[in-house]
Structure formats: structure tokens, C-alpha cells
Write a structure and sequence with these properties.
With 1152 residues, this protein is of the alpha/beta class. Helix content is 42%, strand content 14%. It has 4 domains: 326 residues, Rossmann fold (3-Layer(aba) Sandwich), CATH 3.40.50.300; 267 residues, Rossmann fold, CATH 3.40.50; 146 residues, Elongation Factor Tu (Ef-tu), domain 3, CATH 2.40.30.300; 152 residues, Sec63 N-terminal domain-like fold. The strands form 4 sheets. A 10-stranded mixed sheet has the order 1-3-11-4-10-9-5-8-6-7. Helix 6 packs parallel to helix 7, helix 9 packs across helix 11 and helix 35 packs across helix 37.
């Protein structure tokens, strides 16, 4: 590849800067310490230029808004507003960016970090929305009664036909005026050194713009378009539906007007297809490249996934010589842990002559990203940020089992504390449902008993009915699992939201869409079952749906034929499909590791779907919750800052090999320029301050008798570790479960909260509590058992349910439970806890009453416990403490390792008793002081390590280890020359390139049929969980064993090369669930037949099959790279059998 494609513009740009540098209208620091080296004449000339620029800025900023705007930058001496920040007196943000000594860069021209200048202004825009009498009512009550809304519905009428116009905030009332909603627009720009910058505020719009709009542009759109007209990159950071697409369209229009090519990238193929359709309608000369589909590849505007663009860059595609602009849609996707690295690679590899439009959700560190772009591409990057929402939002809470919604954040963004507390108080007491029940976490279902013994509809049923009665539709209901989406939709299946004409239109669209499918596919259960729901105006959207159904539902929703859509959070990515109302079925989610509250960024992204621009005065967000929230947590979620754009950069073998293969760049080149490295280096000043403060804090702690205390502390620390090992063994399920009978006394401690001695009521395994659902594989054996204990706690806490413990959604700490002494006022409650919280097991058992529901029965146990504590006091001269089970005599733990542990504990206890401070009255105070100093010193060491890492090239050690693996496996030489194996691995990006290359060179595929090849390759593209037990026939089990043996060899080489690889996890990562399904499909089985072979959702099967086709295509290229024609033909045959004509798996997108 010609390196000039990447760097050709660099030297020319430098010459241009040197030639024009003296004519800049913004002053620049030209020396490393920020001092100026200009002559007095130059300074006078620049002052005049600056005054002229400020005059221009004033007039231009007046044009930006119909109203007078206040600006953020204010002269400290006289308080006058500055239209453009004077960069000769840098702002605090500019000062923090003074040049510093950079890591030695690759030879290809990485300049010192530029002294970033800011051309900053802010503008405010005001819009009016109708105000209603309901605001006054909400200000007092803040509650909307859901049950009354249902009862108010006219008997027998179709909800969707209601003609009553209801104000958007939910209560009828006469309009009493208008409410003013203001929003701000902030502009900044990051500049490379010596760039001849003219303030954006002095930009004069083109007489004949590249594209004209039939509406008045918002201030942020005008600022971004001005940047594009000047030929300068821009990052637009704004909420969903704010109008960012206008900016992208203008960049495309300008390229087409100038005869240039432009690339529009999106994170997912579905979004690329949708964007292609939209842009083709607007501009005609548009093409699409997604890997699956290529349409009009010679077009001036090309829509593609970011992976395709990266591949074109690595291959040195001629197209890239002609590209002038690249639009990165949803750039905040760069933080995605798996695929985010693709964005960074692509941005770094693009030529410096290219300009960019970055479209993003609101990100708080947008300027940091712009500085990175300015540094690596030596060009300005503007940031236009707005908190503008075309439709302001009202946020409501709905407590489980409650009868009303509570306004907690109004359209002005005010958090209403009183309403929040009312919602918490209304939280249903009817908790403790079966954690595996279909309605888990969603309150009572239809027909179940509510408080007071009454039967009634489910919570979601009530909310949807209210929404439809009050014309708050269309509504998107976000659930956090595919099964829950379908379960909730089925609860609505008896409701009618569409008119007769709308039903007919739904049927027409649906039948036309599926008409191209085989008859056998048209009768699939998913297709047959969903039509009745769609006709009623109810939709489902999740990753497990057939892709054609997802697209049908999207089209119906856009046309207003779906009134209620149940969706997972993937629906919030990119697709332009707003609704009037958004409902969250929960405020907690499982993120693959734990149950946690939604982050503010996730909440902002999903709730942003509420409110349709030009149609709704307000958008409505309703959050269902089934456990108490802290006000701070709720505020953070609803009003918190959006998630930062943090780099997810990580090394991969395909990246390393491609960079070693391309002339003029290297893996080190990528590491030095990645956003990950930039963010790390940018943290240096803050880390230095933290380190200075931590050192001062550590030095301030003085410990008398430090030497003696140190001796005691070290021995005590060692003894604590041994005692932890002792507890782990004695409470292990193998030894402890036998003794956890009802009435057994156990000591419970969670983190630092000691609940003391409690009474066992019962215990059970986690998957029993979840009705057969297995525990997570990463859990310890202690965490797989739940012990129900009767304990004495302070009043007012929220007792976690069995479901909470199974899901991990509540802990003893988060529930607000606190232990109290038996003599103090409190209450006896049964609390489920994990076995891992059990610290000691007593030899004593109490006889428990037959039932513990009554308060008297629990108080009886409390009195018996108090008698035991008096009989076995833990303090004083006669202190014996509650007797414990003997681990050897009672529990029969007799293995040699345990006996050795007991011996070590005895020796350390003896040594501890001989220390100078043992028994001293000053020991507790000395111990705490020494511990504080140790903690402070540990913090200092941790900060030193982080600072060293920030000063070095991040991940460089990992790169060395990966290169070692490549050399040992024969992919590269000792001189980093890519061998034949390495060239083959460069062709593979969809699967594990090392393992697949090893399998090719070891001849694994040579003896397999095309069907077997496809089945074996399915292990590389499927990663979803399945609860099905897989039994493979030998024709698949044999090749699988060979593949697993190769994987173990690679894992061993990786471990020997000092990479942190777990051999068993690595091998288990190749999932076998779809092997038989792929085999049968390639042999001609129907789709309905292969669906019966697995418990995987149909949509997930199709997604895996499409990825498999992409992988097989790459395997063809790999075989071709080594000239193995026979193997190439075998892979072609496998792909041919996989990609059957007119099959539902490979049916074309409805957007194309």
C-alpha cells in the first residue's frame, strides 16, 4: 500500500501553515512555555485584526438567533461579554493544554501536542410550548391516577379512536398561556499549532448554499454548517431527534456540488440500510457497501459500515484517494467494548486531507475528542454542543402495585423531591414474588391477588390502558430481555388499538413484505403469531426476531400503525423512530456481570425516543420500579451527565498483522496515536496533583511506636489471611450444608457490616430458587446457595426478597438493613443471604416455632437468643462466646492441607501473643493509625503506577507479547516480516484469525465435506447463551476435538508468551450450539426444522448464519492467498449451500 494515501497531505499542509501562519486572526502561542515570540509590529497588527474579528463576531452572533444571547466567556475585569474568546489570554481549559514532552513517536510525523486554542461562544435559544392548568395541579399533587384513567374509558369503544385532546402532561385543563423553554448552544474549536484560523463567528454564509431547507435552521445546525462550508471538521453532540442529520446531509450536498466523494459510516448494517434508503431518496447518487450487499459502488456518496471502511484503508483502496469527507454517525459507539476499536483504527488510518463530520449523542468530553482529532490529523475540529431537545420531557415514576404515576422531573428539568417521596411511599408491600415467574419485577399480573385480596389487571396493562385513553400514544415500552418483551406484549393481546382501516393496511403491508418468501417460511410460528398482534397495533422489536419482521415492524411504527411497541434497548441505537411516550419496565438491568441501575447515558439514550418533533409539546417518560430508590440514584439516572466517550481500544492479531504488513506504519504507530493513549496522557496533570495530595496525606500521619506496631500489624495481616482461608473451608457447601438446619446459629457479616449471630430458617441452591436456571459460571460455590436467616435489625430497612438475591439486584448494604443489639429496639425479620456471608457456624441450635409470620413468634426467638447471649457472654472476665462447631470432630474436615492450615494459625497466634504491644490498652488506637498510614501509602503507590503508565505507551507490553506469539507460531519472522501464515490471517476478521489460520495450515478442512466445514466454522460466529445440552454425532464431534486441540496449543503458547489467557475459558468460548443446525441446513433442511434443533431465537440464528457466510467468504480469500484452489472451491461450495436462494435467512432488506 502507498503510504501517501495515509499521509500525502501532511507535508503540503505544513508548507501552507508556514506560508500563511502570520495572517491568522487569532493569536497563537509559539513556544513550549506559552510565551510569544512575535515582534511589537506583529502584535499591533494582530490587535487590530482581533478587534475587527470581534466586531464581525458581534454581528454574526446576532444573526445566529432572533433573541439576544448571553455568552459564557466574560471578561473578569469588567464583566463584559466576549463574543469570541481572546486566545492570547487563554481560558483555563486552554492553559491546561500547554505542550508537554510527548512519548517518542513513530517517524511518520507525530508533532508535539498542539497548544489547543478555543474560539468559544455560547448562544441561547428560546421556544414556547403550551402551558396548561394541569401544571398547577401537578405542582401540588404530581400524581396521575391510572385506575381512574382506565375506568374513564367509554365502554366498548376502541381506544385508538378517542377524539379527546389531552394536554401532554397528562391532566385535562384549560390553556393558560405558554411556557418558555430555553436551551444553550456551545461552540469550541481545537486547532493544531500555527494554524491560520479565522474565528467561526466571522464566517459569511455562502450566497448559494449547497443545500437549502424548507425550515429555519436551529443555531447549532447553523454553526455546524458554517464549519463545513469552511472545509473544517466538526463534531455535533446533541440529543436524539435534535436534528443532527441536517448537518450530515449538508456535508454530502457540498461534496456532490464540488464533485467530491463522501463516505457515510454507521455502526450496524440495519442502520446502513435505512440510511441508504433515506439518502438515496434525497441525493440519488448514493451507493451501499455492507459486506452482505454492494449497490452502486461507483456512487459519489457511499454508505457503509465502519468495518468495511477499515478494510478498504488496510487494502489501499483507490476509492480512498477520491474521498474528501467522511461522516461518522453514532460516533459515541466508539466506547463499545468489542467493536469500538474499529472506529479508532479507521480514524487514525484515514488520510489527513479528509475532513470529518462526527454525529454523537451528548458526550461531556466532546472537546477532548476534538483535540485528539486536531493532533493526529493536524486540522481544526469544531465542537458544536447543545442540550436542545425539540420536545421537552416529563419523567414519571410508577411504583409496583401502585395506582398512579408521580411526576418527578418536569419539562424544565426540576426534580420534585416531594413527589419522589410519595412514589416511594406508594411502593407496594406485596413483594417476594418467585424470581423466575414471568412477571418477576413487574408487580402483580392479571388475576393475581393485590393488597387487600382484590384481583386486578397487571401494572403494565394499567399503564398502557391509561396511555391509550389519554392519547399518549405511540408508546415504546423498553424491557431488558427478549422473553420479557414477548411476555408483556401477550398480556396486551386482547386490546384493540387499531381501526378497521388500519388493520387492513397492516395486513396489506405485512403480506406484501413476506410475499417473496417461500411458502414454508411464511408459515413459521413467529410470522403466524405476530400478525394478530400487529393488526391490533401492538409490536415487538428485539434481536431474536426474524430480520424481515423487525423491518416490517419498523415500517409500521413509522406509519403510525403500531401504537404500542415492546422493545429491548437495541431499538434506541440510531433508528429514527420517536414516540410520544416511553415506558421503562425496570430501572435495573443485567449487564452481563451484575444487576445494576441504568446509567444516566443509557437512560438518556432510551428516554430520548419520547417526544416527536413538531407533533408533541412534551414527551412523557414513565419508569416502573419494584424496589426503593435513593433520591441521589434517581437524580443521577434522570438528570445525570451523559456517559463519557472513553476509548475501548484493544489490540487484536488481525490489526497487528495488517499494520506490520502495510509499508510506512506499524503497530506502535497505532498505539501512539490511539484515543486510549491520548486520554491516558491527558490524565497526567490530574494524576500528579492527586499524587502530591496523597503523599502529603501519608506524611501527615504519625504513628507512635511505629516499629512495634509494624511488627504486630504484619503478623495480624497474615493471620487474617489464614482465618479467611479457614472460613472458606468450614463454610464450603461440601461441609456446611449438613449443619444448616432450622434453628442453627450462624454469624453473618456482609463487607464491613457485622449482623452478629442469626438463626437459620432454611437454605436452597440458587438455581432451585430460579426454577432450574443455572447459576452464572463465574460465581463461587459459596455464592450458589441462599440461606434464609432470622436476624435482629433496626426498623425502617427494606428487606431484600429471594428474587433480589438471585438477581443480585439488592444486597444487605443497599437494602438499608442495619444490625442492632438484642437489648435495643428493632425487629426480627427473615432475610435471604448468600452462603458467602456466613462467617461462623455455631454448635448450638434453637427450637423454632412452627411458623414465623407472626410478630409474637419472632419475638419469642429473640428472647431465646438473648438468653443464649447471657449464658455465653462474648465480653468480660467470663467471656466464652457462642461455642463453634469443631471443624475436625464435628464437621469431619480431615485432609492434610486443612491440618497444615490449623498448624500455621496456631503458630501465628503464638507469635502474635509474644509481641511487645499484645494486650496493651494503646493497641487499638496504634493499630488504626498504622492501618491509615498503610492505606495512604498504598494509594501513593497506586497513583505512582498509574502515572508511570500514563507517561509510557499504553499496551506496549501486550504488543510485545503478541508479537512473541506470532513469531512462535510462524506468522512473522524475528524481524517482524509477515510470513505466509500472517498474510492468510490478514484476510480473516470475523473469527479467531490465529486459530483458523492454524487449522488451514494443519489441513483440518482438507478431509471435511463443505457441510462439515460450515458447521465447524459456526463455532467462531455464535456467542449467545443456551441452556440446551448439546450432543453431537461423531461426524461433527471429531472435527470439533481437532479444533479444540489446536485452540489449546495457541492458549499454551499465549500463556508462555506472558499473555493473560485462561485455557479452559478460551476453548469454551467456541460455542457448539449451532453446529448441528448448520449441518442440517446445508443438507437441505427447512428453516422451521432447524429451529426445532435449538432453543435459540430465530433472529439470533439468522444473525449467526449471516456472520457465518461472511466468515466463509473470508476463508475463501484466505485459501486464495496461499493458492489452494481446492480448498477455496470447498469453501465456495459451503457458502453456496448456506446461502440458499429465496431463503428467509438471506432475504434482502426491505429498505433496499
Amino acid at each position: 500500500m502507498d503510504p501517501s494515501i495515509l499521509f500525502g497531505a501532511h507535508e503540503a499542509l505544513k508548507d501552507e501553515i508556514q506560508t500563511n501562519g502570520s495572517s491568522s486572526n487569532v493569536s497563537r502561542s509559539s513556544t513550549p512555555d506559552g510565551t510569544s515570540s512575535r515582534t511589537k509590529a506583529e502584535k499591533r497588527k494582530e490587535r487590530k485584526a482581533r478587534k475587527k474579528a470581534e466586531a464581525l463576531a458581534t454581528s454574526t452572533n446576532e444573526d445566529l438567533s432572533d433573541k439576544k444571547r448571553s455568552h459564557d466567556d466574560t471578561d473578569a475585569s469588567n464583566g463584559k461579554p466576549n463574543e469570541v474568546a481572546d486566545s492570547s489570554s487563554p481560558s483555563p481549559s486552554a492553559k491546561s493544554e500547554t505542550p508537554r514532552k510527548r512519548i517518542k513517536a513513530d517517524a511518520k510525523g507525530m508533532d508535539a501536542e498542539p497548544p489547543i486554542l478555543t474560539d468559544e461562544f455560547t448562544a441561547e435559544a428560546t421556544r414556547s410550548i403550551p402551558a396548561t392548568g394541569s401544571d398547577a395541579q401537578n405542582a401540588t399533587s404530581g400524581q396521575e391516577n391510572v385506575d381512574s384513567a382506565i375506568q374513564a374509558e367509554a365502554s366498548g369503544s376502541e381506544i385508538g379512536q378517542s377524539k379527546t385532546t389531552v394536554p401532554a402532561n397528562g391532566v385535562n385543563g384549560a390553556q393558560v398561556g405558554s411556557m418558555q423553554i430555553t436551551h444553550s448552544v456551545r461552540h469550541q474549536v481545537a486547532l493544531p499549532p500555527n494554524y491560520p484560523y479565522v474565528p467561526l463567528s466571522s464566517h459569511v454564509p455562502l450566497e448559494k448554499p449547497a443545500k437549502e431547507y424548507p425550515f429555519t435552521l436551529d443555531p447549532f445546525q447553523r454553526a455546524a454548517i458554517s464549519s463545513i462550508e469552511r472545509g473544517e471538521s466538526v463534531l455535533v453532540s446533541a440529543h436524539t431527534s435534535a436534528g443532527k442529520t441536517v448537518v450530515a446531509e449538508y456535508a454530502i450536498a457540498q461534496c456532490l456540488k464540488n464533485g467530491q466523494r463522501v463516505v457515510y459510516t454507521s455502526p450496524i448494517k440495519a442502520l446502513s440500510n435505512q440510511k441508504f434508503r433515506e439518502l438515496q431518496k434525497e441525493f440519488k447518487d448514493v451507493g451501499l457497501m455492507t459486506g452482505d450487499v454492494t449497490i452502486n459502488a461507483e456512487a459519489s456518496c457511499l454508505v457503509m459500515t465502519t468495518e468495511i471502511l477499515r478494510s478498504m484503508l488496510y487494502r489501499g483502496s483507490e476509492i480512498m484517494r477520491e474521498v474528501a469527507w467522511v461522516v461518522f454517525d453514532e460516533i459515541h459507539y466508539m466506547r463499545d467494548s468489542e467493536r469500538g476499536v474499529v472506529w479508532e483504527e479507521t480514524i487514525i488510518l484515514l488520510p489527513r486531507k479528509v475532513r470529518y463530520v462526527f454525529l454523537s449523542a451528548t458526550i461531556p468530553n466532546a472537546m477532548q475528542f476534538a483535540r485528539w482529532i486536531a493532533q493526529i490529523h493536524v486540522q481544526p475540529c469544531h465542537v458544536v454542543y447543545t442540550d436542545f431537545r425539540p420536545t421537552p420531557l416529563q419523567h414519571y415514576l410508577f411504583p409496583t402495585g401502585g395506582d398512579g404515576i408521580h411526576l418527578v422531573v418536569d419539562e424544565k428539568g426540576t426534580f420534585r423531591e416531594d413527589n419522589f417521596q410519595k412514589a416511594m411511599g406508594a411502593l407496594s408491600d406485596g413483594r417476594g414474588e418467585d424470581p423466575a415467574a414471568a412477571d418477576s419485577g413487574r408487580g402483580k399480573q392479571k388475576g393475581q391477588t393485590k393488597k387487600g385480596g382484590q384481583k386486578g389487571p397487571s401494572d403494565i396493562y394499567k399503564i398502557i390502558k391509561m396511555i391509550m385513553v389519554k392519547n399518549y400514544n405511540p408508546v415504546i415500552v423498553f424491557a431488558f430481555s427478549k422473553k420479557e418483551c414477548e411476555s408483556l406484549a401477550l398480556q396486551m393481546s386482547k386490546l384493540e388499538f387499531n381501526t378497521k382501516e388500519e388493520k387492513e393496511m397492516v395486513s396489506l403491508v405485512f403480506n406484501n413484505a413476506i410475499g417473496a418468501l417461500h411458502e414454508e417460511d411464511r408459515s413459521l410460528p413467529q410470522i403466524e403469531h405476530i400478525l394478530p398482534l400487529l393488526q391490533r397495533g401492538i409490536g415487538i422489536h428485539h434481536g431474536g426476531l426474524l430480520p424481515i419482521l423487525k423491518e416490517i415492524i419498523e415500517l409500521l411504527f413509522q406509519e403510525g400503525l403500531i401504537k404500542v411497541l415492546f422493545a429491548t434497548e437495541t431499538f434506541s441505537i440510531g433508528l429514527n423512530m420517536p414516540a410520544k411516550t416511553v415506558v421503562f419496565t425496570a430501572v435495573r438491568k443485567w449487564d452481563g456481570k451484575e444487576f445494576r441501575n441504568l446509567s444516566s447515558g443509557e437512560f438518556i439514550q432510551m428516554s430520548g425516543r419520547a417526544g416527536r418533533r413538531g407533533l408533541d409539546d412534551r414527551g412523557i417518560v414513565i419508569m416502573m420500579f419494584d424496589e426503593k430508590l435513593e433520591p441521589a440514584s434517581a437524580k443521577t439516572m434522570v438528570k445525570g451527565e451523559a456517559d463519557r466517550l472513553n476509548s475501548a481500544f484493544h489490540l487484536g492479531y488481525n490489526m497487528v498483522l495488517n499494520l506490520m504488513r502495510v509499508e510506512g506504519i506499524s503497530p506502535e504507530f497505532m498505539l501512539e496515536r490511539c484515543f486510549f493513549q491520548y486520554q491516558s496522557a491527558a490524565s497526567v496533570p490530574e494524576l500528579e496533583n492527586e499524587l502530591r495530595e496523597a503523599k502529603d496525606a501519608a506524611d501527615a500521619i504519625v504513628v507512635p511506636q511505629e516499629e512495634e506496631t509494624n511488627e504486630y500489624f504484619d503478623l495480624h495481616k497474615q493471620l487474617d489471611e489464614l482465618n479467611r482461608n479457614f472460613r472458606d473451608i468450614t463454610t464450603h457447601p461440601d461441609y456446611s450444608l449438613t449443619f444448616l438446619q432450622p434453628g442453627r446459629l450462624v454469624k453473618i457479616k456482609y463487607e464491613d457490616i457485622d449482623f452478629g449471630w442469626c438463626c437459620v430458617v432454611n437454605y436452597q441452591k440458587k438455581h432451585s430458587a430460579a426454577k432450574g436456571k443455572p447459576a452464572a459460571p463465574q460465581e463461587s460455590e459459596h455464592s450458589q446457595y441462599i440461606v434464609e436467616c432470622l436476624m435482629h435489625v433496626a426498623r425502617g430497612g427494606s428487606v431484600p426478597t429471594m428474587r433480589d438475591v438471585v438477581r443480585g439486584s439488592s444486597t444487605l448494604a443497599s437494602s438499608g438493613l442495619h444490625p442492632v443489639d438484642p437489648d435495643q429496639d428493632g425487629e426480627m425479620v427473615v432475610v435471604p443471604v448468600l452462603l458467602s456471608t456466613v462467617q461462623m457456624i455455631s454448635g448450638l441450635r434453637l427450637k423454632l416455632p412452627k411458623e414465623l409470620r407472626s410478630r409474637d413468634a419472632r419475638q419469642q426467638v429473640k428472647h431465646r437468643l438473648r438468653e443464649l447471649f447471657n449464658r455465653f457472654p462474648s465480653k468480660g472476665k467470663d467471656a466464652k462466646g457462642i461455642p463453634l462447631l469443631d471443624p475436625v470432630k464435628d464437621m469431619k474436615i480431615t485432609d492434610d492441607d486443612f491440618k497444615s492450615l490449623l498448624g500455621k494459625i496456631a503458630i501465628l497466634e503464638e507469635r502474635l501473643s509474644q509481641t511487645a504491644l499484645y494486650g496493651s490498652k494503646d493497641l487499638p488506637a496504634l493499630y488504626e493509625a498504622y492501618k491509615s498510614k498503610e492505606d495512604a501509602n498504598e494509594k501513593v503507590n497506586s497513583l505512582k503506577k498509574r502515572l508511570d503508565e500514563a507517561h509510557s505507551v499504553m499496551q506496549l507490553d501486550e504488543l510485545k507479547c503478541r508479537k512473541r506469539v506470532l513469531r512462535r507460531l510462524g506468522f512473522t519472522t524475528n524481524d517482524d516480516i509477515v510470513e505466509k501464515k500472517g498474510r492468510v490471517a490478514c484476510e480473516i476478521s470475523t473469527g479467531d484469525e490465529l486459530l483458523l489460520t492454524e487449522m488451514i495450515f494443519n489441513g483440518v478442512f482438507n478431509e471435511l465435506t463443505p457441510e462439515q466445514c460450515a458447521a465447524l466454522l459456526s463455532c467462531f460466529v455464535f456467542n449467545e447463551k443456551s441452556e440446551q445440552q448439546i450432543r453431537l454425532k461423531e461426524d461433527l464431534a471429531g472435527p470439533l476435538r481437532i479444533m479444540q486441540d489446536s485452540a489449546r496449543r495457541i492458549a499454551k503458547v499465549s500463556i508462555e508468551s506472558r499473555l493473560p489467557v485462561n485455557e479452559e475459558e478460551y476453548v469454551a468460548g467456541f460455542r457448539v450450539e449451532l453446529m448441528d443446525a448448520v449441518m442440517q441446513w446445508c443438507k437441505g433442511a427447512k428453516f422451521s426444522e432447524i429451529c426445532k434443533l435449538t432453543d435459540i431465537f430465530e433472529g439470533s440464528i439468522i444473525r449467526a448464519f449471516r456472520r457465518l457466510a461472511e466468515l466463509i467468504r473470508q476463508m475463501e480469500q484466505a485459501a486464495n492467498a496461499i493458492g489452494n484452489t481446492e480448498l477455496k472451491e470447498k469453501f465456495e461450495a459451503a457458502r453456496s449451500k448456506l446461502e440458499r436462494e429465496k431463503s428467509i435467512i438471506f432475504s434482502p432488506s426491505l429498505y433496499l
